[in-house]
Write a structure and sequence with these properties.
By secondary structure, the protein is α/β, with parallel strands linked by helices. It has ten helices and 13 strands. It has helices spanning 17-28, 47-57, 72-77, 79-99, 137-157, 183-196, 217-230, 247-258, 282-287, 295-309; strands at 9-12, 34-35, 61-64, 104-108, 161-166, 168-170, 201-205, 211-212, 214-216, 237-239, 245-246, 263-267, 276-277. A six-stranded parallel sheet has the order 2-1-3-4-5-10, with helices on both faces. The protein has a three-stranded mixed sheet with strand order 11-8-13. It has a two-stranded parallel sheet with strand order 6-9. The N and C termini lie far apart (40 Å).
């Protein structure tokens, strides 16, 4: 059922990579009644504040994209923060959504919910079948609890709560921090800086052989709206591009998009990480959704945004 463009829609985490893309998509569709709050306006870890907010605003739809996120170093350094803050945010928003009769809630997880050695491509039913990747298990366990909470409220109260699990995302509003950004924005920044500084080479860790999947965040936003309109069931849904690219191919494509003319050197003494990580998206494809943005087009778009916002990084 199409979303009523006059409905009150609360996008939690609207300034992040995912939340901001969802807001752009909803604006494109003509939604006029978005409810947006910054962290300083509304602390989602504060139960009474969240409850008061829902009592006052009474949103009809909730998209839960707010989370405490970070890389391996942050997860290892602050495990208590990662599990506690994410559990608090989810619990407060899901419970208040139910209490105040939200029509539908969509909870966004992460592909790190799956076991470290999950079958490839990773199907939805791989969840909880084996141990997690130890470096981000605190975050993953919080996200798994969010999925299970949505399922529990559906089972016990018939509350229309669904969950979506995106693959590796990139695009507008990505994090280009030199130390703690993900592989794609990190490569983009390094090639750009090498180009600007007229360096003759860029050294990249590993052999370039691992395979990864990337989805432009605007495609994810499109899938979020599609699921809100077309899906209502217990199991979470994987959202990915369904396409794999080696880190070597990715680096060469980023080099080309940025226009770096120097050499690309692989430091094979450095670790490669997981050899393959691909989501099985056949469930979502079966529902009728496929991504629209190619990796090349997405990279061109992301680099353009990076250049426009480079001074603010």
């Amino acid at each position: 059922m199409p979303i009523d463009t006059s409905a009150k829609i609360f996008v939690a985490g609207h300034r992040g990579l995912v939340g901001s893309a969802v807001v752009r998509k909803l604006h494109q569709l003509g939604c006029t009644n978005l409810i947006l709050r910054t962290h300083s306006d509304l602390d989602l870890t504060n139960q009474s504040a969240v409850e008061s907010f829902f009592a006052d605003e009474k949103p009809q739809y909730v998209i839960l994209a707010a989370a405490k996120v970070g890389g391996i170093h942050a997860n290892n350094t602050y495990p208590a923060d990662f599990i506690t803050i994410n559990l608090q945010i989810q619990t407060n928003v899901i419970v208040s959504s139910f209490n105040h009769k939200v029509q539908k809630l969509l909870f966004l997880g992460s592909s790190c919910i799956y076991p470290k050695f999950a079958p490839q491509p990773i199907p939805e039913n791989a969840l909880l079948t084996a141990p997690l990747e130890p470096t981000n298990e605190w975050y993953a366990i919080a996200k798994i609890a969010g999925i299970k909470m949505c399922q529990a409220y559906r089972l016990q109260h018939n509350f229309d709560a669904i969950s979506a699990m995106p693959t590796n995302l990139y695009g507008t509003n990505d994090n280009f921090h030199p130390e703690n950004s993900h592989v794609l924005p990190a490569l983009l920044r390094r090639f750009h800086e090498a180009k600007v500084n007229n360096l003759d080479k860029v050294i990249v860790w590993g052999t370039g052989s691992p395979l990864r999947e990337f989805l432009h965040v605007d495609d994810l936003a499109d899938a979020v709206v599609f699921l809100l309109e077309n899906y209502s069931d217990l199991e979470h849904v994987n959202v990915g591009s369904g396409k794999e690219v080696s880190i070597k191919e990715l680096a060469e494509l980023v080099k080309e998009v940025v226009g770096f003319k120097g050499e690309l050197v692989w430091d094979s003494t450095k670790p490669d990480g997981t050899p393959r990580k691909l989501m099985d998206t056949s469930k979502l494809v079966g529902l009728g959704w496929t991504p629209k943005i190619s990796l090349r087009d997405g990279l061109v778009d992301t680099y353009k945004w990076y250049l426009e916002n480079y001074g603010k990084q």
